[in-house]
């Protein structure tokens, strides 16, 4: 993380660019372009914007990413979750500000771009770390459900309002009588076809003799075929005249260059949503990028990614787009289709530019129900309730974070859900580390090793208490240690020495240092001595100049064994105490691979 | 912390109560009563309340604490910092709600009492841990300065407004022409006398032949003498008639029993201030209680203290008082005067009850300037700018927390200052643990020990990378580890094995587990294997049932040495690499008492 930001990663691959690479990148770009045309339209509609915004957002941002991005195969553009967050952000604006959704989307992209760029230049990529995986999982699943529920609008041909599940369901209940039959039929047929393709086509094609790679690519292309077929049918049979909603007129032309609207109230109102969009988009993009880079033993530079995504969003803001990030499906297709360098992204941008110049009239008759079906199929693959069961088994705290984020997002909306999840996961983490595992340790007979007296048959002394604190000492847990030692002193009359084994103490902050001083002083006043053993280098560096160490009643020992040998040598002769009845934990501890 | 809450700690000492204890407690109570009469008046005035509220707050709360408290010598009542917070909370109410300050103080005491009681019954004493020592130090120093600045009102005989330093100074600047000369003279003389007493009297008395104990007690009693003398002079010379502000009529009688006002808007507005008062008061009280208990090798039970302080505040709320907590000065006097049990508190309450019944007419002529001087002397002992220098030397993060709290409290007020300090210290802690110390380790030649390659001359292998993570793995730092390993894999072509030495990993949350799975999978795809060594018992217990451990490409080794011996045995023959030039850190690490 400490290397200088490579300002132009493209120089590395541009130098070695040759004809083979060009051919590979061109093929990949052609395939991704075909995939991206309907996807861009659909995600723009999902964000509540005119369809062409999606095309525009897939041109300039790709060019910028190709220059600044550190991933070789990441494909940026509008993605489902970010489009949902964009819709929610615009929808929660006061009425006067949401009169111009496209302008608001440009402000969001500009704000998000500036924030990402700033985080990148300040090397603050670690901000994204505070979105824990449980929070992300809960959020993605809830977003997928919200998006799918919202698509009932297109699938049923009815108006639907709301940014939470209860709102959407209430709106749906009031509109059920107005379902448009032909729209439902086309939507349901497309859904059935797409699910069939997703779950069986590749296997079928392989059994028909195609190679696995070709079968997969063809299966991925099938939806585009369906879209083409539906558009032809809609035109041929005049579905639009029968009341079916179609994409309609998409203006032909270059992306419109221009500034986002300058209303300060709009910028202020969108600042928090833009921050959340930035962080969520960055996390999604980096996960995709890291996964794909690792397959080729390449790596991506998170801070450089921030710069590139920031630039991509600024480009979207100045060319009529919407917030963008690296998308999973398109990046995987890009990589699988053989893309070798970000030049593939440049060619994809050219393809989409051509589409927005010449292809848009052909999209007029594309039924919105078909686009809605492609979105539903795409987002339902994001829904993963299994994470609830997995986190429940592994850790109740993580489960609570998933559940809070999931329910918060579904019931309160994307922003409150995300904020609640992040807040809860931070609070639970602090709570856990504020109650550290403090083990009393004794000597494993015949060795220089010390282990938890509750898990092992070990030798101890009445005169010496050895405590191993399994946590860095800081303000939230310093008092726990005081309490533990106060307890021991009050209940063990023969006690003379307390030795803290610091092998797992990675840091001691000023509060904990005060606590150690207080412990030392109280022990001295009661006629006991406090000692330390196995203090780590970085911790000792900091303790070295402190009054605590100068005043310490006891000594600092290199190893816990040396401490016991010096302070309570009778322990080394003592027989091991009776071990406690073996518990599950103790049995697990006795298995190979488990220490302490 | 896991013992059941002893509902009535008083039963322990009441059973063994005898004539000796009675005598000791009575003497201590008499001395504390004399100290508390002026202090209670002064702190009530500081809170912006009529003086008798202070007396009432020193009766019922003491009785309740005597029954439920776990400290033998803690003396509860109004204290400086909590009274300042009470004044600030009432002062920041909207005008219609602050018309009745006494009613607002009762609501604060009731809310605070209920919160403390709830925290105690839920065993949430650890909430107080989130006030780090730097935050407390900065807050106490700033509070002392704010209180002292506010007392210029009494010392100069002018009206002063404001709850922040700029407000107080601006108010002072506008009033300097109206300073009341005689008030200033009396105030300055009292200040000089009290500072003299505090810094020299005990020594002087000892040189005159008194024992150290008696000299200290006499020095502590001297202020009461000064107050008596000033009251007599004020009455005798008719200072009140000359325009000097005196305490005036303090109603005679029992504390008024009754309910706090029921206005829901008032309760809502005071909820956050009450929470802050509860936490600050609890932390102050517990620190005092622990310090005094440790001297006698006793202990206090933090959760029981919450119950007792909660009860004390509820008692204050129903008997015309104000928020209370355990005070430092009075508890030390109580302990030094020989109090053995909380019965001394019962006798003190009786003394103050007697005072409020019969002594209040005698307080009519007590000049407010004298009370202001006693407050200034008391609170200036709280001011400690040294903490800035000490934390600066020890840790810049802790210094930032002190400075932010100090400046925030002085410039913005007690609540914003405290909230800013707590927020900053949490953020800095998370930031630190999100950038864990990850050391590459090699073998110390001829031993089974492994140390940081940057600090020691150790043996390593090109085929094996040993990493020791000096932090628990959780969501905020999981990505750091991924980055570190991605880096290594991309830059070391000969690498075959990555071994994580987990001796300092005290916990692995679900996010970190996901990261480990991702690392393992990426390494496997690149033809490498991930191994673990020295996993702790509690961590292994949790990992045991996970798909990560079942799928792990590598193995789990009991010790790091076993891992190296099995995976890269050539290391054990290799010569040590050239050690890096010794840095300060390396030299420190070479000193005795420092491991790793």
From TrEMBL, chains A, B:
GO terms for biological process: transmembrane transport. Its main location: membrane. InterPro entries: SLC26A/SulP_dom, SLC26A/SulP_fam, STAS_dom, STAS_dom_sf. Keywords: Membrane, Transmembrane, Transmembrane helix. Residues 574-596 are annotated as: Disordered. The chain crosses the membrane at residues 21-46, 52-68, 73-91, 103-122, 134-152, 184-205, 217-235, 265-286, 306-324, 344-363, 370-389, 401-428. It is a multi-pass membrane protein. This is Sulfate permease.
């Amino acid at each position: 993380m400490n290397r200088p930001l490579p300002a132009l990663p493209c120089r590395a691959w541009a130098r070695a660019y040759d004809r083979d690479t060009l051919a590979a990148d061109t093929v990949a770009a052609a395939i991704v372009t075909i995939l991206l045309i309907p996807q861009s339209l659909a995600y723009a509609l999902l964000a509540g914007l005119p369809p062409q915004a999606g095309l525009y957002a897939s041109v300039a941002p790709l060019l910028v990413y190709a220059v600044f991005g550190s991933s070789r195969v990441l494909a940026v553009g509008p993605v489902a979750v970010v489009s949902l967050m964009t819709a929610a952000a615009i929808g929660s604006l006061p009425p006067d500000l949401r009169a111009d959704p496209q302008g608001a989307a440009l402000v969001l992209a500009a704000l998000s771009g500036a924030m990402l760029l700033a985080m990148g230049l300040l090397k603050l990529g670690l901000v994204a770390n505070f979105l824990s995986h449980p929070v992300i999982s809960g959020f993605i699943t809830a977003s997928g459900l919200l998006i799918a529920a919202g698509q009932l609008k297109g699938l049923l041909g009815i108006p639907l309002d709301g940014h939470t599940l209860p709102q959407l369901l209430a709106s749906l209940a009031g509109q059920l009588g107005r379902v448009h039959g032909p729209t439902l039929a086309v939507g349901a047929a497309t859904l059935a076809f797409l699910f069939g393709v997703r779950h069986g086509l590749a296997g079928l094609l392989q059994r028909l003799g195609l190679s696995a790679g070709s079968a997969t690519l063809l299966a991925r292309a099938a939806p585009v075929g369906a879209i083409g077929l539906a558009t032809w049918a809609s035109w041929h049979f005049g579905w639009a005249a029968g009341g079916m909603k179609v994409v309609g007129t998409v203006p032909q032309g270059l992306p419109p260059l221009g500034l986002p609207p300058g209303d300060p109230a709009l910028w202020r109102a969108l600042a928090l949503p833009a921050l959340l969009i930035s962080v969520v988009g960055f996390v999604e993009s980096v996960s995709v990028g890291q996964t794909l880079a690792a397959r080729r033993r390449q790596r991506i530079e998170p801070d450089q990614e921030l710069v590139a995504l920031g630039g991509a969003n600024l480009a979207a803001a100045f060319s009529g787009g919407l917030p963008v990030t690296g998308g999973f499906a398109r990046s995987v297709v890009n990589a699988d289709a053989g893309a070798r360098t970000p030049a593939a992204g440049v060619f994809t941008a050219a393809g989409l530019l051509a589409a927005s110049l010449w292809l848009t009239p052909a999209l007029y008759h594309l039924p919105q129900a078909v686009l809605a079906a492609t979105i539903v199929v795409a987002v339902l693959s994001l829904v993963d309730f299994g994470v609830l069961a997995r986190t429940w088994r592994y850790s109740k705290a993580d489960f609570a974070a998933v559940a809070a984020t999931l329910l918060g997002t579904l019931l309160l909306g994307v922003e409150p859900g995300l904020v609640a999840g992040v807040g809860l996961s931070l609070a639970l983490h602090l709570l856990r580390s504020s109650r550290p595992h403090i083990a009393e340790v004794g000597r494993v007979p015949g060795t220089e090793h010390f282990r938890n007296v509750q898990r092992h048959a070990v030798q101890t002394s009445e005169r010496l208490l050895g405590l191993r604190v399994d946590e860095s000492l800081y303000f939230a847990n310093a008092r726990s240690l005081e309490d533990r030692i106060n307890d021991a002193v009050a209940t063990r009359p023969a006690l003379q020495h307390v030795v803290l084994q610091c092998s797992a103490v990675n840091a001691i902050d000023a509060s904990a240092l005060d606590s150690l001083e207080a412990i030392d002083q109280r022990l001295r006043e009661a006629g006991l001595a406090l000692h330390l053993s196995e203090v780590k280098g970085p911790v000792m560096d900091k303790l070295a100049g402190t009054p605590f160490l100068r005043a310490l009643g006891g000594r600092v020992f290199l190893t816990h064994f040396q401490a016991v040998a010096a302070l309570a040598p009778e322990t080394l002769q003592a027989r091991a105490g009776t071990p406690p009845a073996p518990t599950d934990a103790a049995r697990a501890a006795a298995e190979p691979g488990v220490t302490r």
